[in-house]
Amino acid sequence: MNKRLLKIVSTLAIMIALGMLLIPHLLPESATGSNLNTPVDPHKPTLIFFMNPRGAPCLLQKKLLDGVYAEVSSVVNIHYAKVNEETDQNLFYQHGIRGLPSLILVDTTGKEMHRFSTGIHEGKTIVDEIQTSLHH
Predict the structure, then answer these.
(1) DSSP summary character for residue 94
(2) Residue 102 in contact with residue 65, Cβ under 8 Å?
């Protein structure tokens, strides 16, 4: 490898390493804190948001979900299942989650009502799919 390319690669490696150390401190508390779930109403279905609280796609999905929070939380509970929370691991296994971000709507008994495709969804799409699932 020539010296210039080696210098670029080593600089990028240092930047990535520093970023991994700094990112958790730069994230808002809502992205890393454990108080992300709405109060549970046993009479409402639950939207489970499977996420990595430090992953860029999941943070973007959270931001989009936050944009429609009032509308969504009025009809469903929202549970943020995080990969780094030991108590959420069973949910990942139970629902066969293999990619993030993932959203699943379950009824009051835990039965799956709607599974969104893995990936990022606009707030309007989330609202529309929830409304459709609730009116079937």
Answers:
(1) H
(2) no
